[in-house]
Amino acid sequence: MGIEDIAACVNGPAGAASVSLPTTVNDASRAERDLAQLDDRALIERAQSGDRVAFETLVHRYDRDVLRLATSVLRSPEDARDVYQEVFLKIYRNLHRFRVDSSFYTWMYRIVTNACLDHLRRRRCRPEDQAPEMAPLTREEAAGDFFDRQPGTSADQNPERQVLGQEIGQRIDAALEMLSPRERMIFEMKHYEGLKLRAIGEALGTTEETVKNSLFRATRKLRAQLEGIR
Fold this sequence. Notes:
The protein is mainly α and 230 residues long.
């Protein structure tokens, strides 16, 4: 779903003025370059006034972050794309409610995490919607970082390690499915997204201590499931 598709779903943020688009290609290119130099607050203020190009610039600034987190958590490209569309549609519909003195990044991440949690909960209720297996390489790398076991040589140079990496990736995916949706979300955000506990808490609307406790439970469960892996 592109910006045109998102805009077509709604008439624009409530109370927004009519949208004014550039009239020529050169004008459009110049406007995009100018907007790209603006900070989030300026873009949001213009988007709240009905500037669709400003909103598109805002989307392009964060679309990779949204898709990466959704893919990492859901382990399903199709579900990740659904969340991606859902998130930016919600942002478009609710941008007029956003307070510019707040953190847009945190507000956006809260929308993303809630959408991912909803998908994970639905998946647990419907086994037929379990995510398909994906390439395990990133899981192997992530597991190596998390469990402090860095490989001495790359998997590409060692076929045995490549096969082992695939097996480890599959076991990690299966272990992650044993976590609760919130535990999995927190684990993914901490170890695969590299977010600080405080940032995770802000995104999930909870305290840093609660995040720390959930992360501890998730880690303990994963270690139990992955016992024996070297």
